Amino acid sequence: MTSPLRTAYDLARRGSLVERVVAVDALARIGRFGPDLLLNFARRYAGTRGNDGIFEVLSHADRRAGSPMESRLRMLLVLGGLPRPEAQWPVARALDAARWT
Predict the structure, then answer these.
(1) Would you list the domain boundaries of the chain?
(2) What is the pLDDT of residue 96?
(3) Distance of alpha carbon 23 from alpha carbon 57, whole angstroms
(4) How many C-beta atoms lie closer than 10 Å to residue 71's C-beta?
(5) Using 50, 70 and 90 to split pLDDT, how confident is the model at 82?
(6) Contact 60, 20 (CB under 8 A)
(7) Computed over its alpha carbons, how large is the radius of gyration of the chain?
């Protein structure tokens, strides 16, 4: 058994970029840690297979993602050349503000 942080580190090193980001997003949300903490593992285990890919995963990771499909959609948009969307944008507040302007 491993911690969510250690599991995120292991999953961040294997598979496609999108699925690695999905795993880190979900584990960071559940484990309530900032994805940047994976850098500690990357430094501690320098030279481990797949370690060099962690930096790319962390550039896309966001623990505010509410579901794996949200992470996949965000990655589809970003890898398609669009700007990174804001996760968990409060739509109701934005609509209320627009109503009063």
Answers:
(1) 4-99
(2) 62
(3) 10
(4) 24
(5) very high
(6) no
(7) 15
